[in-house]
Amino acid sequence: MSNATQNRPSDAAQSSGFMTRILRRTFSEAGAKIGLFWVSVLVIMAVFAPFLANTVPLLASENGAVSAPFLRYFTVEDVIFLSVFVIVIVIWLSPLSRTFSRATTSFIILTTIATVLANTFVKPPQLIIYDDFRTQQAQGKYDWSINAPVAFSARDYMRDVSEAPLQEPLAKSQFKHVMGTEENGADVFSRMIHASRVALSIGFIATGIALVIGVILGGLMGYFSGIVDMLGMRLVEIFESVPTLFLLLTFVAFFGRNIYLIMVIIGLTSWSGYARYARAEFLKLRKQDYVQAAIASGLPLRSILFRHMLPNGVAPLLVSVSFGVASAILAEATLSFLGLGPVDAPSWGQMLNQSIRASTFNWWMAVFPGGAIFMTVFAYNLIGEALRDALDPKSAKGDD
Amino acid sequence: MSTQTSGIKSYKLTPSEKPEHKLLQIKNLQTHLQAGKRVVKAVDDVSFSINKGETFCLVGESGSGKSILALSVIQLLPARISSHPSGVVLFDWRKQENVGQVSIPTYKQVDMLTLEEDDLCDIRGSRIAMIFQEPMTSLNPVYSVGEQIMEALLLHNNGMSEEIAKQRALKAMQEVQIKDAETRFNNYPHEMSGGQRQRIMIAMALACEPDLLIADEPTTALDVTVQAEVLKLIRALQQRKGMSVLFITHDFGVVAQIADKVGVMKQGKLVEVGDAKNVLRNPQHEYSQKLLAAVPENLPRRKKEEQKSPNEALVKVKNLDVFFPIRKGVLQRVVDHVRAVDDVTIDINKGKIVALVGESGSGKTTLGRAILQLQKPTAGSVSIHGHELVGLSTKQLKPWRQKMQIAFQDPQSSLNPRLLVAKTLTEPMKIHGIGSNDDERIELAGEVLEAVQLQRDFMWRYPHEFSGGQRQRIGLARALALNPEFIVCDEITSALDVSVQAEVLQLLLEIRDQRDLTLLFITHNISVVEYLCDETIVMKSGKVVEQGLTEDVCGNPQNPYTQKLIEAVPRLNL
């Protein structure tokens, strides 16, 4: 499409593609707007977590020298999240976003580079003693300092402050914890913000893996049909009979609690639904006249599958993707609730688990993480529902 | 039964109007439809009347509002989106009133637009019946056809016993010439063919002996031979029962067959009303003249050229079979085959337009696709320029793909909705190495668009921005983009309005002459064949029954099937 798009006269610029119209129609609905709003809040929390919740001051002046102490403690994860965000913004604004395939390729390449660079060059100190910063500030070592809106890191367990853990929100104590503290004494609000990363990444990575496998296998099944279809459907049935939760438990028991392993396993076991969808779509599209015309023009299989069929069949898949993201988040929450999630990294499910610890019901440990899980799953479902309506020709409004 | 209903109004009629003859009078009817925030004037100030025992044909192109007009008469439009700012629809309502032991008919003139729902329900089905275009979907698949006819009878005749209803239903089925009505009574809709289903619909509509039958394109989805039978049937039943018919169609041939009076509609307005013969022979309004001139039979005939070169076969098909297996049982064993194309041998001569004619299911589309190797033949041979195509791999076929192209029937599905027209046109060029760079290919694509009489900058748009006729041209442009020698045109004009069809046909002739093309024109429309094609091949149930020059096949058919087919074509000349 390269030259073709660039030669395009500007007066025809308002002519919009199918996907743009579908998305516009989707997000014109109130429900989808609410969903989109919540997901954006999650994205902002995940990307800017170190800016929003950090014990380390954002800016401090020590004897006249202004420095940003928190930058020294940036973890690899912080850097990757920030760079992915920047990459998405840059691609969106650049001409690369004109074609979907280019945008995707450049995103994957740039993200890989950023990940490798972050892993090689970002070396935060192994040990952070958060109390040092508090004492330094209390002793007036800094001339002035700017703290994050939530002045506690997610892993700041307040060991110097000999206060009881599991404090209620806004309990009368030395520090103000808007959502209380958890069993180790860390601030719940801060952990909530940092936990949005797990929720977001598990949703997107697990569903991404499932989608890629599902579309490729389902597409091939649908296009070739016959024996390929027969074997593929049996494979789908085999994978559908694998109980994901028990498989996850087994893997966690053998290989330890690794969040990335959990993402991959959820992805590898949940592709069968997408494969069924893709197969049905490709079976239908194969008989479409424009696909027949593409075959009659002698176009290569790659072009027929990925340019003429996939973009037309992917829209119904998006609906099931949005529900898939929600269920992946729930799966991780379940696992964490059972105490098999990531060890130290904050996660909503793990916090939920603490609400029933210590023989008392700690309502704030139930309400805030539980509410966040509910809102996130609800938001994705709202988007999925609106997408389904937008794609349904029977409910299509004549607004274009 | 004699209680006055509030919706019934009486109207004073001028002495010149004789109410007893006018069954339906429509005066200044307007129907507005709400589409989002826009208001569409679907029917705009239409007035006409239908006398008893008369057939009134409404003709017009798609979107002219003829179906909406019919639905306004019977009040079947959803009230949420429709409104009637002005107009009256006066219907002469016949009611059976019991006076002592005898029931005598009474007549009351009512305005359908203001009548109450209960009264409308009484009228619908019993006094005004309607039949629709699509026989597949207008019958309920879970009831047998007999039950459905009985239901209509029982609903509209209070106190009729089931026994009598069944007798009446059987009689109605016999009237529409369903053979063996007793056994057919218990059949379900899927067990009947399209023509039989349409007969059942007619039987259901006529079972209550309505005064007015509204037929909305009842034969459009049917094959031409079946259409001829159904038209004959409607005509005969109408004369026997003295019923009036409001017949909606887009086909002037059908109008010539059935109409007493004709109304021509354009964009919601009735532009011409008159006696059928007068309107067809001597149309007064500019639009009617244009429509009639676009009918293939009336298109200016081109001069028959002298044979430029001796007949030289470009594409040769020999003993071609395409079978689809029928599988049954647990093991999915092949028990039989559907013989879609059965031992077909044809030659397609260079530079000719060859028609492939046949009714639905005759295998003409399968044959077209099998020639292009889009459908793998079961046996036989297809060769172009003497090169065998059957059995070649995708890679080996690629150079031949450029020489053979296809254009499709459905303007909705023939273009990829996600691709700019430019991309649709240039991608195949790139694969086949036509044009050295993208700029050059864009230039070539522009030329092709101009060849099909479209503007160059149309290539920067997406398919959904075009009308049906424009899309068909883009489909043709895509086929032409590779500079092929041979194009299969699969019903490319069937979904188009008659005036657009005429333009596309003339365009095809021009392109053929400019580019020295050979066309295989698949169609079911005999008038188009007579206008366009040099040679004709007639297919029936997968077999070729007759082939030869168009003048011979259409003028003097030899095969009994061809004779029946040609005879069934509704002709315009009266």
Distance between the termini of chain A: 25 Å
Mean pLDDT of chain B: 85
Identify the overall geometry of chain A: elongated
Proportion of helical residues of chain A: 55-70%
Number of separate helices of chain B: 19
Protein structure class of chain A: mainly alpha
Strand order of the largest sheet of chain A: 2-1-3
Poorly predicted parts of chain A: 1-15, 395-400
Overview of the molecule:
- By secondary structure, chain A is mainly α.
- In chain A, 65% of the residues lie in helices and 2% in strands.
- Chain A has helices spanning 2-6, 18-26, 30-47, 49-52, 69-72, 76-93, 100-121, 130-138, 188-224, 226-240, 244-255, 259-269, 272-286, 289-296, 301-337, 348-353, 363-391, and strands at 59-62, 65-67, 144-146.
- A three-stranded antiparallel β-sheet of chain A has the order 2-1-3, with no helix packed on it.
- In chain A, strand 1 (59-62) and strand 2 (65-67) form a beta hairpin.
- In chain A, helix 10 (226-240) packs antiparallel against helix 13.
- The model of chain A is unreliable at 1-15 and 395-400 (pLDDT under 50).
- Chain B has 574 residues and is of the alpha/beta class.
- Chain B contains 19 helices and 21 strands.
- In chain B, the strands form four sheets. A six-stranded mixed β-sheet of chain B has the order 7-8-9-3-10-11, sandwiched between helices. In chain B, strands 17-18-19-14-20-21 form a six-stranded mixed β-sheet, with helices on both faces.
- In chain B, 45% of the residues are buried.
- Residues 1-19 of chain B have low confidence and may be disordered.
- The interface between A and B is large, with 35 and 47 residues.
Topology, element by element:
The complex is a heterodimer of chains A (400) and B (574).
Chain A: H1 2-6, H2 18-26, H3 30-47, H4 49-52, E1 59-62, E2 65-67, H5 69-72, H6 76-93, H7 100-121, H8 130-138, E3 144-146, H9 188-224, H10 226-240, H11 244-255, H12 259-269, H13 272-286, H14 289-296, H15 301-337, H16 348-353, H17 363-391
Antiparallel strand pairs in A: 1-2, 1-3
Chain B: E1 22-35, E2 38-51, E3 55-59, H1 66-74, E4 82-83, E5 88-99, E6 102-111, H2 117-123, E7 128-131, H3 145-156, H4 162-175, H5 181-184, H6 194-207, E8 212-216, H7 224-241, E9 244-249, H8 252-258, E10 261-266, E11 269-275, H9 276-281, H10 286-294, E12 313-328, E13 333-349, E14 353-357, H11 364-371, E15 379-384, E16 387-388, H12 394-401, E17 404-407, H13 421-431, H14 438-451, H15 468-481, E18 486-490, H16 498-515, E19 518-523, H17 526-532, E20 535-540, E21 543-549, H18 550-555, H19 560-568
Parallel strand pairs in B: 3-9, 3-10, 7-8, 8-9, 14-19, 14-20, 17-18, 18-19
Antiparallel strand pairs in B: 1-2, 1-4, 1-5, 5-6, 10-11, 12-13, 12-15, 15-16, 20-21
Helix pairs in contact in B: 3-4, 3-6, 4-6, 6-7, 7-19, 10-16, 13-14, 13-15, 14-15
